[in-house]
Every structure is written in structure tokens, then in C-alpha cells.
Design goal:
Chain A: One of its GO terms (molecular function) is 3-oxoacyl-[acyl-carrier-protein] synthase activity. The complex is a heterodimer of chains A (about 400) and B (about 425). With about 400 residues, chain A is of the alpha/beta class. Helix content of chain A is about 35%, strand content about 20%. Chain A contains 15 helices and 14 strands. In chain A, helix 3 packs across helix 8 and helix 12 packs across helix 13. Chain B has about 425 residues and is an alpha/beta fold. Classes of the chains: A alpha/beta (about 400), B alpha/beta (about 425).
Chain lengths: ~400, ~425
């Protein structure tokens, strides 16, 4: 669209599409049912001693019809491309070339899987003294699949969404773990609110069933080991259980949505973020408190959906923030979905918007002190994302009557 | 007084500080002198053994020691150096207290071979090495620093702390258009009135064996290894691929109003940005050139200028058979007959392709072109490609009147982004 001067008041933005494919299933009805029944899909065995939340069975053909496209992707890209397709379907814009060709896209992404067998083979030969100079080159030249590189590049989730679904207005990929998911939504909203964009596809995908990722987090002792427990019940065994899942949203200006007769799930009112240095105990708590006041909240008919990871000290510091707002019901996506890293904040927004559209806050899957039942329809849900190492974000999502 | 707002009523965005590091050297002065002298920074790789590789040359930055080497550590060092130069030139804020957000273009990060090999040695020769064994030895704090180092957000975190940028720093990748996207995000933030200043940095230190081999397996790299300085041949008939290179570019952007209010020296204007994604293929452009054409038109429209006003194009010009052909198709479709007259040169003929950094490195060079009224050449241009009748400023720099530059970046994954840079507000 032709961008002009920023309007004096922010343009209202609606969430008009939600795409979810996670360890609890795919699609909105399946998720609503799973959430209502406090379902959790945690696997303590396949990656033992590490606990993961594996992707539910998904028929990728339904959103990625060409097998050739599927073969060009690693799992994280398939999950994301699939969830993005669900979001476009949900918004009623799937296949609408006119809209897709000017739809902006911001994807929060990590990177792709390594070929574990190739890595192990090389390291084995080297540690056993069987590697001549130039051995690494020789093996990589002969063993790496050319297409693996494309499945590893961070921006190729967006690239695949463009190819499979035709979203081509723009394509931007943010990186940086949890914070990238917050910033993707923050920038998409800021652009719509300022009239720089009419409609955007935003989201992320994560494959938690990966030993190379477990390795990165094991360096910092962040992985949950042995036994699954809700995120608030990990005092003696802290850490996150990686989760597989993709969460995408279609966000658009109210005027754009109304002009095409689209129904909103919820209003995306505000997204704020910060980057505490986390040098002193309490830094995260005070950063969350200041984000909370920047959101401009009222406590009435408000609920919180947090992406708290279970890793320390971030989870304890977030709990201190929550205790300062004791009457607000809290739901932790980490308990149900595990930690989907870049996707955790978009996932929180997705379940918040879904809840608001269904006029109910789903039941808590844990028994923490703020697992309060909500008997009235929530008017607003605050989504929180505090990264396991860096990054704090918050969004305000409101019901549209 | 010059207008503080552009034709669309948005704040004019100016550049008040720039920094650059490439294989040609550190800093604007060295880089500009060598660029205009037509020197090449491409060398035979000495950082690691190149036995068995089809490509053995690169534009590595060897003069900045990083021990033990990792691409992420080098990326961070390069970003530091470029940013220091940019912030010092801008004279903005206080040391360690930059008054705006950070947008960082950075290559995707992952654990690298030296660290994997360290784990292998830790496991020892008596056990079979696999990821289970690697996981077994990796916890307990012994390798704690590798968690921080190989997070995607780690370089941005370091820059945010060192330079004191505000808010949540954004790390981004749009492949070879990343540097341009970082600038675009800064421009948009200032236009929204969210910030008076933004720090836009792009860095890449990716020349390691696996990265080189990955590009090589896609047949993207030049294999004309001898002599190294002639490996990158953008727009030539005998071009056969790009040359991987390292570098960083940094720009301090400000609203014109804020820059003028503090009496800052204005180095140039970012008048417009354009982008458009390509859905044709993962590594190839749509054969009809429509996404590139649309991207270029979007940039012109965003800046509110016509093709007549563009008097130099800083090309993406990678030297791959595909890119250069498509870039000509795109430019000639938009510029018509003028495509043959307007100077179009490729910095990559000399510095190589700095990948994630290229958009910002070339934006700095474009602004230096405006400042010095001199166009750096496309070197190694001995065999013109009749299918690409650009005036590539062959082999020798040229003095010219330049008021408005277009800088293009196109990347894998259908990424297209273009900038319009001017000396004065348009």
C-alpha cells in the first residue's frame, strides 16, 4: 500500500486468522477441546532423559499439497508452512491472490536441523585418529545434501510460505529465540497501526524433537530432565521441555477486515517489549511490571496467558510479578505445549484470541495459586513472554463485542 | 529551510554516521580509496585447509584476529568495529548510550565445527561419538559459554549492551537482502515516530568450511580460483558465481528534525525503501522478473522519485549467471532505454559478496558515492555479456554528478529489497 504520514491515532488492528499445529493437534476446534480437557502431550522416553512435547500426527498434504515442496523442507519448515496455511484458511484469504500479493509477512525463526549421522560420522573418525588433513572437507562435500542448506536457512520458512501459499507482499524473518516471536508481532502491529501495512501474516514454528537443539540448551543446563511437571512445579527440577508446534496469525486493520467482511477473533491492542540486562535478581520482575503499566491495563475481567518456560531464574522472577497481581487468572502455555521457543509468544496470542472469541477462558492444566477459574467471559487477555535467557514481551488482546 | 517531511508527509530519514569493514580494510577511508582504485579483497583462503574444495578463494577479513575462530565471534567483532565508526561519526548520545533501537542483520547462528570437535575430544576415542554422547558431556556448566554464543540473539545482545541501544534489539535475516532490511526497519521506525534515531547494522563472518561447502553444493560460487582477485566477474560473459566474503556495515539513522536540532552533519538521506517477495523457487527468481520489477518500482514509489532521477545504480551484481541476468531484466523493464545509459556497478567485484552484510555495506558505499561524486567500478570486466548491455563502469572509477542512487539486494528465499539514497531531501 502507499504509505503516508502516520495517523494521529493508531489504526485499530484485528486478529482475523489463527493457525495452530502443535503437540495437542491441529486446528482451532481440536485445540479448544484439548485445552478445555487440560490435555498435555509430554514424552519422557523418546529423547530421555529429556522431556519433549512431540508434534501430534498431522497430514501435511492438506496444506502442502506438493510432495516435492515437502521434501524441500525440514520438519520445522513443514510445521510452519502448515500452520501458516491454517491461519490463511481461518482468515478466509487462502488463495485470494489479490490480498496475498500485498500481504506482509514476518516470521520468527531459528534454524534448521543438522544431519546428525553426518556430524557423528565425521567426529567419530576424527576422535579415533582416522581423519587425514582435509577429511572434514571431503566428507562434507560428499555427505551434505545440497537441499539441506535450504532447509536450514532461517529465512526459508518465510520462503516456503511464499512458495506454497503465495504470500508475497513482503517477507521478513526475525531471529533471536523467544524475543523474535514478540518482535515479529510487535513490528507487524506497529506497521498496521501506523498505516504502513493493511494485513500481515505473523508467526513461527519450532521442532522440539531435535538433539542438536537439545545440545545447545544443554550447554546452559536449560533442558527439563526425567519427569514432566507443570512449569510452576519445577522448583526442584527446573528447565523447559522443548515443544513442537507452529502458530500463525493474520492481523489486519479493522477497516481492511470490515471491507472484506472478515470476522475478528479479537483485537490486538498493544505489544510491548524490552531487553533487561538481567544482571541483578529482580530485573525481570521489574521489567515485566513496567511493560504491564505500558500496556495500560485494567484488572477487571482480565486474564493472563504466559509463555513462562520453566527455566530459572526467569520463571521465578515472572512468578514474583504475577503474585503482585494475585486475583488475575493465569494460564501457562509451557505446561500444555512445552516450550516452542520462537513460537511461544505467537502461540500465546493464538490461544488468547481463541479464548476471547469463544467467550471463555480455558481451564488451567496446573494447580498453581493463580489457576483461578474464570466464570465470566474475559474482556482482555495479557500475553506474556519472558525468554529463558533474554527478552521480555507483553501483548494486550481484547474481546470484540 | 529544507522540509523536515517528505512528499508523503512522513519524517525525512537522514544518515548521520556510517562505518564499514570489508576484505579491503577497516573504515570508510581505506575502503573508499581501495574501491575507487579498483582493488580486490579476494584472496586464497588460508583460514582452513581447502583440499578437495572446488572454490578456494574468498573475501575473508584476516586482519582482525579472532581466536579461537568462530564465524559468530568474527561477525560480532566486525559489527563492533563498523558500529563504533558509525556512532563516533554521528556523535550521537553518549558512549554506551545510543538513543534508539538496534536492527541487526546477521547470518543464522549455529554451533560450529571447532566446538563440535571439542565435544568429540571430550568423549574420547573409546566411545562411539553420536549426539547422545555429545549431550552426555555438554551439561554441567563446562560449556556454558557456548549456550550464549550460539543463540541467534547473541550478537545483537552484545551490541545492545555495548552501545546501549534502547528496547528489544531485532536480529533479522532476509538472506542476501538482510542489510537492506535492517535499514528499512530503521527507516520505518523513524517514520512511525517511534524513534528519533535507529542503529542499523549488518554483519557477516561466514567463511568457514561448512558454509563454503553449502554454497558450493548449490553451485553458487565462482570456481575461478586463479588468480583470486579475478574470481568475481559481475555482468561479464565469463562470470560463474559469487565469491563469499566477510564484512560489516553500520548506519546511524535519524529523523531530519532530530539531526538538525542537534546540529549533526547530514551524510545523506534514505528517501525510500521497497520490497517484494518472490514465490517462484527457493533459489531462483521468477523468470518473468516481476518480483524484482515490483520491488524496484516499490522503492521508487516510496521515495516519490522517477527513473529519470536515478543517476547511479549500486547493483546486487553477485556474478552468478542467474542473478546478473535477472537484475538486467528487472532494471531494463523499469528503466527502459535508460538502462543502457545509467551507470550500474557492482562493489562485489572487489569486496566479494558479504551476504547478510551486503545491503548495509553497499548502502555505505552508495552514500560515499554521493559524497565524493565518484562511482566505483566493476572490475574484472574483460568479456562483456552482450545480453547485459549495462554501463558497468568497467574496471576504472569514474567522476560523475550523482544525486540519487538506487541500491539493490536480492536473496535466496525470494527476498528482494531496494533502497533509494540521496544527498539532499527529495
Amino acid at each position: 500500500m502507499a504509505e503516508t504520514a502516520s495517523p494521529s491515532a493508531p489504526i485499530e488492528a484485528w486478529i482475523t486468522g489463527i493457525g495452530l499445529a502443535t503437540s495437542l493437534g491441529e486446528g482451532l476446534d481440536a485445540h479448544w477441546e484439548a485445552l478445555s480437557h487440560r490435555r498435555v502431550n509430554a514424552d519422557e522416553k523418546s529423547f530421555a532423559p529429556y522431556v519433549v512435547h512431540p508434534l501430534a500426527p498431522i497430514n501435511f498434504d492438506a496444506q502442502i499439497p506438493k510432495r516435492g515442496d515437502q521434501r524441500q523442507m525440514e520438519a520445522w519448515q513443514r510445521i510452519g508452512t502448515y500452520a501458516a496455511g491454517l491461519a490463511l484458511d481461518s482468515a478466509g484469504v487462502k488463495g485470494n491472490t489479490d490480498i496475498l500479493s500485498r500481504m506482509d509477512m514476518i516470521v520468527a525463526a531459528g534454524g534448521g536441523e543438522r544431519d546428525l549421522v553426518v556430524d557423528a560420522g565425521i567426529l567419530n573418525a576424527e576422535t579415533k585418529g582416522n581423519a587425514a588433513p582435509g577429511y572434514l572437507n571431503e566428507r562434507l562435500m560428499s555427505d551434505l545434501r545440497p537441499t539441506l542448506f535450504l532447509a536450514q536457512l532461517s529465512n526459508l520458512l518465510a520462503g516456503n510460505i511464499a512458495i506454497v501459499h503465495g504470500v508475497t507482499g513482503s517477507s521478513r524473518t526475525f531471529m533471536g529465540e523467544e524475543a523474535s516471536g514478540v518482535d515479529a508481532v510487535r513490528i507487524a502491529l506497529a506497521r498496521i497501526a501506523a498505516g504502513q501495512s493493511d494485513i500481515a501474516l505473523v508467526g513461527a514454528a519450532h521442532n522440539g524433537e531435535r538433539k542438536d537443539l537439545l545440545l545447545l540448551y544443554e550447554f546452559g543446563d536449560f533442558n527439563l530432565k526425567e519427569t514432566y511437571a507443570p512449569v510452576w512445579a519445577r522448583e526442584h527440577n527446573s528447565g523447559f521441555a522443548l515443544g513442537s508446534g507452529g502458530a500463525f496469525l493474520v492481523i489486519e486493520s479493522r477497516a481492511h477486515a470490515e471491507a472484506r467482511g472478515a470476522k475478528p477473533f479479537a483485537r490486538l491492542t498493544n505489544v510491548v517489549a524490552d531487553h533487561a540486562r538481567r544482571k541483578r535478581s529482580g530485573d525481570i520482575t521489574s521489567t515485566l511490571e513496567s511493560l504491564w503499566s505500558r500496556l495500560g491495563n485494567s484488572a477487571e475481567r482480565t486474564a493472563i496467558v504466559t509463555g513462562a518456560t520453566g527455566a530459572e531464574p526467569a520463571t521465578s522472577e515472572e512468578r514474583a510479578f504475577l503474585r503482585a497481581h494475585p486475583d488475575i487468572p493465569v494460564r501457562a502455555t509451557g505446561t500444555m505445549f512445552g516450550h516452542t521457543m520462537e513460537a511461544q509468544f505467537p502461540l500465546g496470542l493464538a490461544v488468547a484470541a481463541l479464548s476471547l472469541s469463544r467467550g471463555a477462558l480455558f481451564a488451567s492444566a496446573d494447580t498453581s495459586e493463580q489457576a483461578i477459574d474464570m466464570t465470566t467471559p474475559p474482556a482482555r487477555i495479557v500475553v506474556i513472554g519472558a525468554g529463558h535467557w533474554r527478552g521480555e514481551g507483553m501483548a494486550l488482546v481484547e474481546a470484540i463485542n | 529551510m529544507t522540509a523536515m517531511r517528505d512528499k508523503s508527509g512522513r519524517p525525512v530519514v537522514v544518515v548521520t554516521g556510517m562505518g564499514v569493514v570489508t576484505s579491503l580494510g577497516s573504515g570508510k577511508t581505506d575502503n573508499w580509496a581501495r574501491l575507487c582504485a579498483g582493488e580486490s579483497g579476494i584472496r586464497t583462503i588460508t583460514r582452513f585447509p581447502t583440499e578437495g574444495l572446488r572454490t578456494t578463494v574468498a573475501g575473508t577479513v584476516n586482519f582482525i584476529p579472532v581466536e579461537p575462530f568462530s564465524s559468530t565471534d568474527l561477525s560480532e567483532r566486525l559489527a563492533d568495529i563498523a558500529t563504533e565508526e558509525a556512532v563516533a561519526q554521528a556523535g550521537i548520545g553518549r558512549v554506551g548510550d545510543f538513543p534508539g533501537p538496534l536492527f541487526l542483520a546477521v547470518a543464522p547462528v549455529e554451533l560450529e565445527w571447532p566446538q563440535r570437535q571439542e565435544l568429540g575430544r571430550d568423549i574420547g576415542p573409546d566411545a562411539d561419538v553420536d549426539y547422545d554422547q555429545m549431550l552426555r558431556v555438554s551439561g554441567g556448566g563446562r560449556y556454558k559459554q557456548y549456550h550464549r554464543r550460539f543463540l541467534f540473539g547473541s550478537v545483537a545482545d552484545h551490541l545492545a549492551e555495548t552501545f546501549g541501544t534502547k528496547g528489544s534489539p531485532i536480529s533479522l535475516s532476509t538472506a542476501c537482502a538482510s542489510g537492506t532490511t535492517a535499514i528499512q526497519l530503521g527507516v520505518e521506525a523513524i517514520r512511525r515516530g517511534e524513534a528519533d534515531a535507529a542503529l542499523c547494522v549488518a554483519t557477516d563472518g561466514s567463511v568457514n568450511p561448512e558454509a563454503l561447502i553449502r554454497f558450493s553444493l548449490l553451485s553458487a560460487l565462482s570456481t575461478q580460483n586463479n588468480p583470486p582477485h579475478a574470481a568475481a566477474r559481475p555482468f561479464s560473459k565469463n562470470r560463474d558465481g559469487f565469491v563469499m566474503a566477510e564484512g560489516a556495515g553500520a548506519l546511524v539513522l535519524e529523523s531530519y528534525e532530530a539531526a538538525a536540532a542537534r546540529g549533526a552533519n547530514i551524510l545523506g538521506i534514505v528517501a525510500g525503501c521497497g520490497e517484494l517477495a518472490d514465490s517462484f523457487h527457493r533459489t531462483r527468481s521468477s523468470p518473468d522478473g516481476k518480483p524484482i520489477i515490483g520491488c524496484v518500482r516499490n522503492a521508487l514509489a516510496d521515495a516519490g522519485v522517477t527513473t529519470e532521477q536515478i543517476d547511479y545504480i549500486n547493483a546486487h551484481g553477485t556474478g552468478t549467471p542467474e542473478n546478473d541476468k535477472m537484475e538486467y531484466l528487472g532494471i531494463s523493464s523499469v528503466f527502459g532505454e535508460r538502462a543502457r545509459q545509467i551507470p550500474v556497478s557492482s562493489n562485489k567485484s572487489m569486496v566479494g559478496h558479504t551476504l547478510s552484510a551486503a545491503g548495509a555495506v553497499e548502502a555505505v558505499f552508495s552514500l560515499l558515492t554521493l559524497e565524493h561524486q565518484r562511482i566505483p567500478p566493476t572490475i574484472n570486466y574483460d568479456v562483456p555479456d552482450p545480453a547485459i548491455p549495462f554501463d558497468v563502469v568497467p574496471n576504472t572509477a569514474r567522476d560523475a554528478r550523482v544525486t540519487t542512487v538506487m541500491s539493490n539486494s536480492f536473496g535466496f528465499g525470494g527476498q528482494n529489497a531496494s533502497l533509494i539514497l540521496t544527498r539532499e531531501p527529495v
